[in-house]
Structure formats: C-alpha cells, structure tokens
Write a structure and sequence with these properties.
By secondary structure, the chain is of the alpha/beta class. The chain contains 28 helices and 18 strands. It has a seven-stranded mixed β-sheet with strand order 8-9-16-13-12-10-11, sandwiched between helices. It has a five-stranded parallel β-sheet with strand order 2-3-1-4-5. Bound molecules: nicotinamide-adenine-dinucleotide (NAD).
Length: 697
C-alpha cells in the first residue's frame, strides 16, 4: 500500500519493558471504545514466532526491521490504542511516523519498579525479553533505560506510573490525550503544513432515514473521550479481568453517533462496553439482518456495530444457537492477515468461543497483506495448513479481512475437499459493500488479475462497522468508489446522500460545472480525505450507506448469480479500472481508485456518445473528486503508462473473444452493457481526453 499517514486519532503508549503498556492499553481502549494493537504481538503474528525466538534465530537487526514495518502499519491506522515495544523509539524514523499518527504518551517508571515487576513475574518473563540477556539486574535495567530515554522524551505526554494501577494510569492517559491538540491542528506535532482541523459538519435531518446525528469532527471526538470518562463512572470500575461481581444496571446512553439507547445489562466486564451493548440492541430492533439471495442460496448479512465478540451474532448468522441443528463445525479456520488478527482476533475468538464453547478448535491461518494474499503460494499454504490440522468436511472457514482476504479464502473454501462452509467477516468498506456479497472468489495469476476463480456463496456475512474505525483513510476512500458505482447503477437516493457527504465534509463544489477543476488532488491530505474521516466518525450514517449499497448489489446478484446477464452491470468502471490497476503493478493505485478513474471515463465516454447528459457526467465526476478519489487516467502525459493501460485493455478484449463489452451509465440509477463504439469511446478516453485535463493523481 502506498504511503498513507493519518492525521492523528490514535493514542500510542511508549515506555520501558515491564511498565504495563499492554494492560494499560487494553484498559484504555475499552474505556474509550477504541481498538487495541500491540506492535510486539503484530511482529509475532507476521513472523510466526515469539520475539525471543526471532532474536535467537535471526538476531536483533532483523527484529528491528520487522519492528519498523509493524510501526509503519500501526501508524496508518485510526482510532487505535497502540502499545509499542520498549525499543521502538530508538529509531527516529519510527518516532516521526508515530508522532504524526496521534498522541504519543510515555509511561515512565523507575528502574527499581521495573526490576521488581520483572522479578515478580519470574524467570520466564525475563527470558522472554532478549535484550536482558537472561539477567535482571538494576545496573543493566538502568543503563538500557537511559539509552532509550532520548526516544521516550519525544512523546507528547509523560505519565509517571509508579505505584498506580493500570486503570488509574489509563484514566490519566485519557485525560491528557484529550487535552492534546490533534496532529493536524495548527502547530501540533510539528506539522505546520497540514490543513486546519476537519470542518464541523452540520446535521442534515434529511440525510438518512434515522439520521438524527451530526457528523462529528475531531474536536468532538476529543470531547467524547472526556465525556465518556465523566459521565460513565462505570468505566472507572473496569478492572480488565472480566471476572468481577455481577451487578444489574440500566443506562440511558448515546453511541458514538448520538443514537440513544437503553441497555439493560448485567455488568461485569461489560461495564466497560455499555456503548457497544446499547448499539447492538438498537440494531436488533431495527432489523440488522439482511437476507441475500443468489440462485438457490439465501444467506444472512448481519450489519451492526461491535458484533464480533457477541455470541448472538453467530446465532443470528447461523439462525440457531450452536450446537443444535446441523453439527457444529469440528474446526474453525480463520483466514486473515497478521495486522487484522492483531486488531480483531481477540473479539472474534471471544464471540466464537461464546457460541461454540470454550473448547472449540480454532485455527488461525495467515495470508500476506494486500494483493499478495491472492497468490498461488498463499493458497498452497492454506491447503497445507488445513491438511496438517486434520480438518474434515465440517470445517468452517471464516474470512476476516478486506477483499483480498475474502477472495483467497473464498477460493480456498470452494475447492478444499470440494467445498466448505464459508463466512465472510469483511473489514474494509469495499469488502462490506462489494466483495463479500455475490460469491465471486479469485486469485491472481502472473498473466492477469483474478484469472482463476470460482462462484461460492457464503453461509453468512458479518459486517461489523466498528472494524471500519481503524481503516486507513485511503482504504476507506477506495471503498467509496464501489459505493458510488452502486449508486450510479441503481440508487439515485444513495447518490444524493454521497453528494451531501462530499459537499459538507470535503468542501467540494458538487454544484459546480467542472469536476476536475473544482477539486484539487494536490490539496493537503487531511482535506482530500475529509469525507472518509467524517464518515469514520459517523457509524450510523456509514451503516445506512453500506446497507443501501449492499441492497443494490444483492438485487443484481439475485437476478444473475453467475455473470450471464444483468450482473455484468457490476463491471461499471472495472474494464478500465482493472487495466489501470495492472499497469500500476497492483501497488500504485488501489482497486477502488482504479475503479473511480474507470467510472469517470465511462461517464465521459457515455456523454460523448450522447447516452448520458454532459451535466450528469460532470455530477458523477465531481462526486468522485469530492470524496477524494481520482477521476482521470493518471500521468496522462506518461506515454509508457498509457500504452500499458491500452495493452491491458486489449488483453481483456482478447480474453473475451475479441468483443470488449463495457458498461456505460445512461442516467443516475440506470446503466447499460454496450459493445462496439462504446468500447472504442472508452479507449479513446485513455488516449485523448485525459491528457487535456488539469487533474492528476
Ligand atoms: N470478489 C468480488 O466480488 C470482488 C469485488 C470487488 C473487489 N474485489 C477484490 O477486492 C480486493 C480489494 O479489496 P480491499 O480494497 O478491501 O483491499 P485489501 O483487502 O487489500 O485491504 C486494504 C488494506 O487495508 C487493511 N485493512 C483491512 N481491514 C482493515 C481494518 N479494519 N483496519 C485497518 N486496516 C485494514 C489491509 O490489511 C490492507 O492493507 C481486490 O483484490 C479486488 O479484486 C473482489
């Protein structure tokens, strides 16, 4: 994934080993309704080995390289409490990346305290920390600490932790972090070139059926952190153990989007999560399950907030409490990328164990991040792991991740032992609205993307909007391209909602005449992704947008499960999009960005042919631009790139027997599959028109 730094909604905990960063981090994340990531756990998931083993077999230099990669991934996240390894701040590049990602807090402890803690934990704990080289002595701790202090001192906030319990420290961190300006606020974190804070977006009561809440900006997020501390004394009693006394209580609370719910909750560990409980209740009343029909298959699509850790999510997905009815899966294999396991693995496993029983057999299977997941070697490793784990036909496959994980996991599920039950747990917007619905699976071959694939319908889709909170803004924006596509194919109402979001969040001129010139792609990153940022802080609106987009896709898939007719409509923007993705080596532009360019080109081609009004074409292009998406062939002045895009389209044409069929919009909500002149017009967009446009990506 290309360089993509967010503008600061994370809280990062730095400090020496034995300071309790992980326990404080978990406590803090629960208090503030944020995700939690431990970079050491991410390194272990990536390497498939514990840290002491990595040091022993590959050495410290190798470990620091893995650590730098983990830091880069962590610093692209949003709304996450990140616990950093004790030595992570020895590298200034790590510090620079992290400081742009949010508020960095140094949890300071005295060497005596560290030593006491390590000794209390025993020999195993000392051996698990290879920099101690098997010894825990005061002089050694002192000298290591002083070497690292230069890095820790660069944190935005310092908190002394001696003699304090994790929940006290967490509370102090939350208060201090809430007082800190965010990275893109003027003068903060040394980022002078960044745009001022996100605009405050005024509520529009017409925006969604149930949309009573304003989109919130970063200042309001800070207020939320504060008010969650002030107004929910229950948080203060959270002890992180989950085994406290059971107590009945009732709260009237508001979720992140301001929806008010009443939760009758047995308070225990859940005391820390009243927000998610209430939201789940609210969704149940609203009917959070959509039924998707594809050919003979009908499956549930569950959409809601904080669904993963709840056993009733899985009961609803399978329409029964386990183990009634069909035999429960003997083994569950969760296919995911290391980062996603580190972020969501605990919640998913908790929910599965609550449903299947404590002793359920859960196997974690890692695939690489991004397109590399959709490869023959990655698929081969999945087959090997399944065979080695003695899995039988009752294996349940869970795909936890974005479209890449879903595609390869789906391919695996459809072919291993001639087909296994599959549940999609999409964690990107693109996967929620597109790839998890419809049953297409794929891997990439050297010759072309998605060349090997199957149709394999899942038994359920579980879309937890909470997972979108951590998504890098560029990836959230990419998903919006598929949402715009759905709107242009079949829902003018959805199109208007998106226009509203773009207008108020991004300040884009969606009423102007020229989509290209009205929005500069050279604007600061914070401004370019303002719409994604606003949506990320507005889960109720995001949920409504997802539901509507899914319904467009589900409607088409229900009519044509296997791409024989109507389903071709879903290729809107994809003919050129795939060619661009390929020409960029699958790294330069995301799938969604490529689709956005393809969609804009399809609009221009359609207008040129007289199928679509010029004004409507401009409206679509302005919307894409307003949401932070590219709208023209990139580097149109780069002849070589243009040639490779055309060559990729020609390859596609050949693969389809010489006739390239393309989808063109006729109006907003209506498209048609065309051939002949339409394909030529689209190719002309690559050659001629784009080079005259002002905007580049
Ligand atoms: N099967 C289909 O019908 C279909 C439809 C559309 C697209 N696709 C495929 O989907 C793929 C693109 O999917 P994508 O855009 O989801 O990309 P992706 O799966 O590569 O995910 C994008 C990035 O976001 C990270 N990520 C995922 N969830 C996250 C979260 N909640 N928080 C933080 N980081 C997170 C991933 O690790 C990855 O780095 C393409 O390969 C495309 O061909 C398939």
């Amino acid at each position: 994934m290309a360089n993509d730094r967010n503008s600061g909604t994370n809280i990062m905990l730095a400090g020496f080993m034995g300071t309790g960063k992980s326990s404080v981090g978990r406590c803090l994340a629960a208090m503030l309704g944020m995700a939690f990531l431990d970079t050491d756990a991410l390194i272990e998931a990536e390497a498939g080995a514990v840290i002491s083993e990595i040091f022993r077999t590959r050495g410290e230099t190798w470990f620091r390289r893995l650590e730098a990669r983990a830091v880069r991934q962590a610093s692209r996240l949003n709304n996450t409490v990140i616990s950093l390894g004790g030595g992570a701040l020895m590298d200034q590049r790590n510090i620079n990346a992290l400081k742009r990602a949010g508020v960095m807090v140094w949890l300071r402890t005295s060497p005596e305290n560290v030593l006491a803690r390590l000794q209390a934990e025993g020999a195993a704990s000392i051996h698990a920390r290879p920099v101690l080289e098997g010894r825990a002595e005061l002089e050694q701790v002192r000298s290591l600490m002083s070497m690292r202090e230069r890095g820790y001192r660069q944190a935005h906030v310092t908190i002394d932790t001696d003699g304090k319990r994790p929940e006290e420290i967490a509370r102090e961190v939350a208060r201090s972090a809430a007082r800190q300006p965010f990275a893109n606020e003027a003068g903060a974190c040394g980022e002078t070139s960044a745009a001022p804070g996100s605009p405050t977006i005024v509520a529009d009561p017409t925006i969604t059926a149930g949309g009573s809440s304003p989109l919130i900006d970063r200042a309001r997020q800070r207020q939320r952190w504060m008010s969650m501390l002030e107004t929910h004394p229950a948080f203060l009693r959270f002890d992180g153990g989950g085994s406290g006394p059971v107590r009945e209580s009732t709260w009237h609370i508001a979720d992140t989007a301001g929806e008010v719910g009443v939760a009758h909750q047995v308070a225990r560990c859940e005391v820390a999560f009243p927000q998610s409980t209430a939201v789940a209740h609210a969704y149940r009343h609203e009917g959070r399950v959509l039924d998707i029909a594809a050919g003979s298959a009908v499956y549930a699509y569950l959409l809601g907030h904080s669904l993963l850790s709840r056993s009733d999510t899985y009961e609803a997905a399978f329409e029964r409490p386990c183990p009634d009815g069909e035999a429960p899966p003997g083994t569950t294999i969760v296919i995911t990328a290391p980062l996603l396991r580190s972020l969501f693995g605990t919640s998913l496993e908790e929910g599965l164990r609550n449903w299947l029983g404590r002793n359920a057999r859960i196997v974690w299977a890692m695939v690489p991040n991004g397109e590399r997941a959709k490869s023959l070697p990655a698929l081969g490793r999945l087959y090997d792991l399944a065979a080695a784990s003695g899995a039988r036909r009752d294996l349940l496959v869970i795909a936890l991740g974005g479209g890449t994980v879903g595609d390869v996991a789906g391919f695996f599920a459809s072919t291993y032992m001639r087909g296994l039950r599959l549940v999609h747990v999409p964690t990107t917007l693109l996967a929620m609205v597109d790839s998890a619905v419809g049953g297409k699976t794929a891997i990439n071959l050297r010759a072309a993307k998605n060349l090997a694939g199957t149709f394999w319908q899942p038994v359920a889709v579980i879309a937890d909007i909470a997972t979108l909170g951590t998504l890098p803004l560029r990836d959230l924006t990419s998903g919006l391209a598929e949402v715009v596509k759905a709107a242009v194919i079949g829902d003018p109402g959805l199109f208007e909602i998106l226009e509203h979001v773009a207008r108020v969040a991004g300040g884009a001129d969606t009423h102007g005449t020229d989509g290209c010139r009205s929005t500069s792609f050279r604007r600061p990153r914070a401004a370019r992704f303002a719409a994604a940022r606003a949506l990320q802080q507005e889960p109720a609106l995001l949920r409504d947008i997802i539901r509507t987009a899914v319904m467009v896709k589900a409607g088409i898939v229900a009519m044509d499960e296997r791409d024989a007719g109507d389903r071709l409509l879903l290729n809107l923007g994809h003919t050129l999009g795939h060619a661009i993705e390929r020409a960029g080596g699958f790294r330069r532009w995301t799938h969604g960005e490529s689709v956005a360019i393809g969609l804009a080109a399809a609009c221009r081609a359609s207008a040129r042919l007289g199928y679509l009004q010029e004004e409507t074409s401009g409206r679509v292009i302005r919307l894409l631009a307003g949401l932070g998406l590219p709208t023209s062939v990139p580097h149109a002045d780069d002849g070589a790139l243009r040639e490779s895009i055309l060559a990729a389209m020609a390859l596609d044409k050949k693969a389809r027997g010489g006739g390239l069929r393309v989808v063109l919009p006729l109006s907003i909500g209506k498209c048609s599959v065309c051939d002949g002149p339409a394909a030529e017009a689209l190719m002309n967009e690559v050659v001629a028109k784009s080079s005259g446009r002002a905007c580049k990506w």
